[in-house]
Structures are given as structure tokens and as C-alpha cells.
Amino acid sequence: MFRSLRRALCVAAALLLPLAGVQSARADVAAEAAGAGYWHTSGRQILDAAGQPVRIAGINWFGFETANHVVHGLWARDYKSMIDQMKSLGYNTLRMPYSDDILKPGTMPDSINTDGKNTDLRGLTSLQVLDKIVAYAGQSGLKIVLDRHRPDAAGQSALWYTASVPESTWITNLKALAARYKGNSTVIGIDLHNEPHDPACWGCGDTSRDWRLAAERAGNAVLSANPELLIMVEGVQSFNGNSIWWGGNLMGAAQYPVRLDVPNRLVYSAHDYATSVAEQSWFTDPSFPANMPGIWDKYWGYIFKQNIAPVWLGEFGTTLKPSVDQKWLAELVKYLRSTSTYGTDSFHWTFWSWNPNSGDTGGILKDDWQTVDTVKDAYLGPIKAPGFGGGGTGPGPGGPGDPSPTCTAAYTVSSDWGGGFNAEVKVTNTGTVALKSWQVTWTWSGSQKVTSMWNASHTQSGATVTAVNAAHNGNVPVAGSASFGLGGAPGGGSVPSVRCTAT
């Protein structure tokens, strides 16, 4: 993000109702059918090694770029449980910010609890911890984009180099990471530098400021070390007098495209935020939020719409407290194109952030590093997409002699205004094997009807409702959970007894 590193814990978010009609993402292809191997591009789409289109629908997990030199939250959780939870919520890709500090020999992580958790991280360097995260993410079916977030842990830089971290170090370290994970297609790409901004330019020809030229130098260096990687190139702040968020201005790519030595490896990336980060003129325009698609088209959406290249919204986030932010996020999700309607022919994205300790946005997790902000997560439901299958070895659940999967469900009314209500149902894996799918059934005592449901699909016969997991949240790890929400009418009914069955 373009502000100073968000360290302060966010205050607990006020309960906000998800927009009516938010629906869970539906897989247009089976999760195991796409995503294998390294990826490449074709027009505005990203394709896997077999030529099948995929959609990045992911989350940012920050920390390696900070003075901790490791992802945050490992003081509270085991890294494997975090990754399992991300997958259970339907995120299929991790964007991992880092600083060049972690490539200094002997850099050690700080604030990892190895007492009963993270025991296999004890004594490892920061890079070795990254190796462990990459390995487990790959085993779990998640892909990773490495994001060179800043030159060092001290803070964000406008340009890709500083007095203490010259361009040569930046390129050397990018090549080192590309080589380190060569042959491991869990790491599918590298975001060359986070949020270039003024005085960075695009197409001005000044090699000390022209981000487009620098991205070509760095991108081609990465491809010389591993020609299979995707090269993610963010925008700048200003172009021809037009300014937007740091890293969010890709207007110059129309006249000055990034040229790479290996074809079909370029992905353009933008960032976009709401008022909890900073006020912008478009938020107070009388036509807001209807004006937003035109703004996004102008700065970065045109690249996708003109079939020039894939576009990845690498960061977007909000506390969701101001009502204007709620409208912004709803409009942005619609703009990014729902998976149920467009499938993989859509914008790619990674939400900011998994971490709750992003001071101006908060995260998908609440301050306890365990509880999911289901309201915020529900907004993203329409644009979530299938995962990519796991790379683990050994027999999976369901083999001869394996125990049967079991689950429980808890139904909670989050709001009731008489004419209608909203409820949340949390499914918990209470067995000893992972769930592959689940189903929750209940019978209302009154005349209630489901009017909308997100993160699950449903059928209703009389007063009896059966809800079935969505494509992205059927897999629930041992002791993990998945949630779905619903709207119904009329209100005033009692909480029904629920029954959960699983396979």
C-alpha cells in the first residue's frame, strides 16, 4: 500500500450488512481441472500449462517486508492453519510482500511462536521460512506471487532503488528468487516493485525515473533465470497530468507497452482503495458510485477490455466502516466480473489483506488472528474462483479404513428488522479427516423464506432449507470452519435447529 507500514492493530470493525443479492462464486470448471504447472498469457487471459484459463482470486499476507522479516500472525497461529483457512474461504493465490532485507545472508525472522506451533520453523532464516510457506501452499493447491514490496524494511520507496539499495541489487535479488524457485510452479510470478509513484514516470525516457524501462530491465533479468514466470508490472502515480493511487496508473501502457524477451509472460497490475485509506475527488462526485467504472476504465481497465493483456488488481481494501466504502467495494466487485457469469474471462485480484493489523484497511481476519470478518469476506464471494488442487503426496481422505468426515453447524441471527433478517451459519469440521463437501439442513417454525444466500447454494421445500457448500469452500481442514450467510423474510422467527452432514 502507499502509506507507511500498517502496524497498528485495527479497531474491531462495526457489523455491516452484506449487500442484498451477493452470491457465492460458482466454478466454471472443476477445481482440479485447471491450474497445473507454470502459467502464461493469451490476450487478456492467463492460461495454465495445458492451455486452460485460470483466475487469480487471492489475498495479501504481509510481513516479510517489515522488520519482522516474516509474515505476521505467526505469534498467534501456525502457518499451516492459516493457509488451510485461506483455502477453506476460497482464496486460491497468495501475494507475499517482501523486502530485499530477507535476501541478506543470515536474516532471521522475529515474532514466531514455536511453542507447540510452527515447530518446523524453529531456527530457520527468513528465506527458509518462505521456503516452508511455499511448500505447504503448493501442497494445499494455492499459488504464490512474490511481491518486491520495498527495498528494505524501513519504508516504501517511490522508485525501485534507493541510495542504499541500488538497481543492481534489486535485479540481482529478483534473479536469485526466480532461480531459487525454478521448477516449483507454486510460485507462478513476481511483482517487480510495489507502487512506483512520483517522481516515477512511464515512457518519459529518463532511465533514472522511467518505470516502464526499469520494468523491462528487471523483467527480462527474471526471465533469464526462469523463463516460465509471469512478470507482474504495476502502474505509476501520474501520467500526462492524470493522477490516481500509487501504482494504479497504467494509462501509459497504451502508448508505451512493456516489452519482454519472452512472449506471453506480462501481466499488468493496478492498486485501488477507498476512503478509509484516503479521500479522492471521485468519492464526492454526485454520480458516485456510477462514475467509478469510467475511472477504472481510464487508468487500467482498458487494458483488459481491449484484450491487450491480463490485468491483476494486486491490492484493494477498506475497513468497510464508511458507507461510501461499502458502495465502492460493491461497485468494484461488480466491475471485476463475477465468476458465475464470466468464469475466468475476468480481472484477476488479491485483496488487501489477510492481516488484521493493516491500520487503514483491517483484514479478512479480526484482531484475534482467528475469526473471519464474514461481512467483508462475503463482498468478495462473487469473484472468488476455484482452487488448483494440491501437490501433496500420500493417500488422501476417504481411503480404505479412513474415518468418516463429521461436522457441526451453528446458526446465528446477525440482524432482524421485522420485515426481514440476516443470518450466518458456521460449519466446523469436528472429525479427523478433511471435509470435501458439506450440507446444512434446518426447518423454520414459521413462514420464513430465503431471499438471498452467499457462499452456499440452497433449495427450500416448505419450511425446510438445505444449503450446500459453494465450489470454493467445500474443502474444510480438520478443526477448520467455513461460513455462509443468508437473507430471509419475514423476521421475528426463532433460531432453528441445524444439522450438518459431510463427505
UniProtKB/TrEMBL annotation:
Domain (CBM2) ranges: 400-503
UniProt entry keywords in alphabetical sequence: Carbohydrate metabolism, Cellulose degradation, Glycosidase, Hydrolase, Polysaccharide degradation, Signal
InterPro entries per record: CBD2, CBM2/CBM3_carb-bd_dom_sf, CBM2_carb-bd_dom_sf, GH, Glyco_hydro_5, Glyco_hydro_5_CS
Reactions that this protein is recorded to catalyse: Endohydrolysis of (1->4)-beta-D-glucosidic linkages in cellulose, lichenin and cereal beta-D-glucans
UniProt KW Signal keyword: yes
Statement: the UniProt record of this protein carries the keyword RNA-binding: no
Signal peptide from the UniProt entry: 1-27
EC number assigned by the record: 3.2.1.4
PANTHER family, per the entry: ENDOGLUCANASE (PTHR35923:SF2), MAJOR EXTRACELLULAR ENDOGLUCANASE (PTHR35923)
Family: Belongs to the glycosyl hydrolase 5 (cellulase A) family.
Name of the molecule in the record: Endoglucanase
Naturally occurring in which organism (per UniProt): Streptomyces tibetensis
